[in-house]
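Exercise 7 asks you to align residues with tokens for two separate proteins.
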Amino acid sequence: SISGRGTVVTGRIERGVIKVGEEVEIVGIKPTTKTVVTGVEMFRKLLDQGEAGDNVGCLLRGVDREGVERGQVLCKPGSVKPHTKFKAEAYILTKEEGGRHTPFFGNYRPQFY
């Protein structure tokens, strides 16, 4: 957090471009929030934009440290919709196929990406 300026979030840009002054949404885990990118930094250099593949820090206006959490995603407003439940059919690899060595137990919580 930079007092008076906002909070810096870090991560890799998966696709597209993020520019200074662009409106973005913080999606996932907590309720979706809108904010504006006021700075993009990579390897201690200030940039006008970051591109896919870059590891960057983004300064977000009006977001406090408690407003963001590891695992959330920055995205173009309206482009990503978070879900807390879904139905899926999954094939789990056997031990011989390079999969799990132990069985599933009650309350197992797999992560899907």
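Second protein for Exercise 7:
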Amino acid sequence: MQSAHLEEALLAVAAAIWKESTEPIRSELIYQQLCASGEAIPEGAMNAVFRSLQRDGVLGGTLLINEEAQRTHGGFVITWLDPSYLT
């Protein structure tokens, strides 16, 4: 999966979840939904996309220390999402 496609897919899932509840979103949930929709996510890709989106100010959150979590589903918790992605 290319990073631009993963970024778009991750943001779409995060926005849909955020619209239902503004509670923090764990990356495991996003990962599960992406995999269930047929996405093949390379190891480390979600973590790279999360860090990029955080650096660009698109979302905010906390990175988990667990290295295995970072490799598989990104190991993060989204606590803020730019409102322009919620339309």
